[in-house]
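Narrative summary of target 7.
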Amino acid sequence: MMLGPDIRIRIRRHFELLRNRVELVAALDDDEQSSVVAELLDDLAELSPLVGTSSGEHPRRPSFSVVRPGTDVGVRFAGAPTGDALSALVLAVLHVGGH
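Modeled conformation, tokenized:
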């Protein structure tokens, strides 16, 4: 588990506002940084039934997209966001998820 219990509780409360399914689509390698990204995305997906993970292709690795399946709505992140970038990720999930 990458996210601490307090952060998980706060993010779970935010994710209750989601209206649409959100997919976290990861383009990863076999390196340590990719493992960190995968763990973060798995942690986030555990916090809402409307958030899922999948694998994708992109030249920049590790990276991932926050997408609304079936639409062109999405945001791409490179590496594992921390600090303020983690807040931006939560906001991106909320935006893509229709809140």
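The first strand starts at residue 22 and ends at 27.
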